[in-house]
């Protein structure tokens, strides 16, 4: 596995594909560049997904996120691109990415993008908001 930024996402087989379960990740060090000013934009990414047959390998996710450090990207575009790439690699039952960008010009921007596999309906006990308020990062 590489140890530099890469757009390559590695996956591994879901150990329990017969069960719906929620994977929650917080990535507090996302950085990209503002395409207007060239200044860095910082965000905490919150990734929630319910895997189908695949799970994301954590180091590859870290290197993938790192690959945006020197790229120009609007908040909305980069959040959607990350969801597209994760969805293509994982083919999850459900995926939500929340990008909480740090203040810029006195404005905090939060972008929330969701993907739901066609025909998938969550069981009644799935509560994706369960982790709210428990974050050790910007909450």
TrEMBL record:
The alphabetical list of record keywords is:
Cytoplasm, NADP, Oxidoreductase, Queuosine biosynthesis
Q: What is its main location?
A: cytoplasm
Reaction catalysed by this enzyme: 7-aminomethyl-7-carbaguanine + 2 NADP(+) = 7-cyano-7-carbaguanine + 2 NADPH + 3 H(+)
Q: Is the keyword NADP assigned to this protein?
A: yes
InterPro entries registered for this protein in UniProt:
GTP-CH-I_C/QueF, NADPH_dep_7-cyano-7-deazaG_red, QueF, QueF_type1
Query: Which residues catalyse the reaction?
Result: 34, 41
> What protein does this entry describe?
NADPH-dependent 7-cyano-7-deazaguanine reductase
The coding gene here is queF
